[in-house]
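Budget justification, computational time. The allocation requested in the original proposal was used primarily to generate C-alpha cells for proteins on the priority list. As evidence of use, we reproduce two of the resulting records. The first is shown immediately below.
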Amino acid sequence: MQANSSDFILQTTDLVKEFKGFTAVSDVNLNVQRGHIHALIGPNGAGKTTVFNLLTKFLQPTRGKIAFNGKDITRMQPAEIARLGIIRSFQISAVFPHLTVLENVRVALQRKENHSMHFWRSDKILNSLNDRAHELLESVGLGEFANTVTTDLAYGRKRALEIATTLALDPELMLLDEPTQGMGHEDVGRTADLIRKVSKNRTILMVEHNLQVVSKLADRITVLQRGAILTEGDYDTVSQDPQVREAYMGTEAPQEASA
C-alpha cells in the first residue's frame, strides 16, 4: 500500500550540499516513514554523514528543503531541531567520561526538564530525576552500572549509555550514526537488540556499515553513492541490486559482508 505524505516523519526535497565546487550531497529525496527503522548505507565518501549533518543542522544545505512532521525546518538551528524531537547520537561516544553512568543520564534528563541553569547548584533537582534515570538505565541493560564512573565502562556499554542519554531527551526521531562501529561480535548483537527494543513508539534513522545489522533491523534502506541516492527498498531488494553489489561490496554478495 502506498504511503501518504502524512505517514512520513522526515522528508527531504532535492537536498544539495556543495563545498567550493564539490557536490557532497546531490538532489537527495529522503522519505522516512513514521515508526520505521530506516538505514542509510553506502561506501565511504558516499555522503551519509553529510546528510546527517544537514538533517541536524550542523550544516546548512546549499539548496533543497527538509521537513519534519510536515514543518519546514530547513533553516532552523540545531537547538531548535532538538526541541522539536530530533536527537542525534554521535559516531564517537558523546558522554561525560568522569561522571557516573547515573549522573550522565540525569544531566540529559535535566536538559529535557529545562533545569540546565541549575546544573551546578541544586542536588535536589538532580535527585528528583533519579527514578526516571534508573528506569532508562534498566531499559538499556545498565542498571547494575549506575554508580560506575563512565570511563571504566567497556566500549559497548558506553554506546548503550549514549542511547540512554538520547532516550532521556524523549526523541520522536533518533538519528544513530554508526552505532556498532568498533564493536566486537557480542557487543554488535547486543546493540542491535537494544536498537530494536528502543525503536518502539519512535522512528530511527541510522547510518550503519554492518550489513548484518542492517538486514536484521531496517524496514527500509536508502543507498547513497557519490552523494546521490542509488536505490531504495527493503533489504532483499537492495542486496540483490547489481549496482549496489558493485558500488558497495565490489564482487561480494552483501549478505556475506559484515563491515
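The second record produced under the same allocation is shown here.
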Amino acid sequence: MKKIHKNVFYHATASGLNVGCVIGEDAVICIDLPPDPAEARSWRAQVAELSDKPIRAVVFTSSDRMSAESLAAVGAPTAIVHNAAFAPVAAPAEPALAQPFESPAPLVRDLNGAPRLTFSDSLSIVLGVKHVTFVDVTFQGGYSPDACFVTLRDSGIVFTGDHVTVGQPPNLAQANLEHWQAILAALKKNRTITTLVPGRGPASEPAEAVDATLDYIKAAAVRVRALVRANRSRSEVSALVPDLMMLYAPKVARSKVSPAYEVLVHEMRAGLEHLYDELQTKGEEG
C-alpha cells in the first residue's frame, strides 16, 4: 500500500488494477476493490491496520470494476456507482440511507439485494466532523458510459479509474473516443490536480500519465481510420494487434506464454473493433 497524502492510500492488485482508500476520523471510503474476493479480504485487513473505523461505502470508478463477491468480502454497506450502471436492472428501494452524502442520490437494490447508491452528475461524501474531508465523485463517461473520477477536494489528488492507464494500453471496447480525448485534454490542463492515480500503473503527475493514454488512443485511431477509409473489413483490425502490442504492451505481456498475453490481446482487439464501428458510423453519417 502506498501513501500519497496524510489520509489517502492506493494499492496495485495482483491483476494490476489500482484500488484506494480515504481515511476519515469517523469512517473510511474505498475506491474500487480487488476483483478477487480473497484479495479483497486482504485489502480490507490492510485498511484495518490504518483505521479501526468502518467502511462507509465503496466508490466504483466504472461498473466493470464492480464485484458483489468482493463487496461481501470487505463488508461494505453501500456501493456508489453512476446510475447508468444499474439502469436496466435497478428498482427504487426505501428508504434512503441516513448517511452524510452531500447530494441527493437514490438508493437502489440490484438483483442480489445489495444496496447501491447511484448518481447522475456528481456526488460528495463528507468524512469527519472536526477535521472534514470531502470525497467528490464526478461523472465523466469517456472510458465507458458510467465511468467517473474520484477527487479528494483541496488535496490535488484524483483517482481516474481506467480513463488513464500507465504502462499498459487502455481498453477501448466501451469508449466514446472523442469525448474521452476531450476529458483527458482538460485533465492535462487542470492545474489544481497534482497527483493522478490511474486505473493501472503508478501514481504520477497528470501530464505524463495522460500523454501515455492519449498516445495509444491516437495511434489506434490512425491505424483503424486507415482501414475504414480503404473500405477494409472489420475483421482486419486483428492484423493491427501485434504491432500495437509491441509498441504499447508491458514487456511481460508481449510473450505468448505470459498469462497476461491473451487477456490483453482480447481487450485490444475488442477495442479496435469498437473503434472501427465508431469511425465507420461517423463516415456513413458524413
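A brief technical remark on that second record: DSSP finds six helices and 14 strands in the chain.
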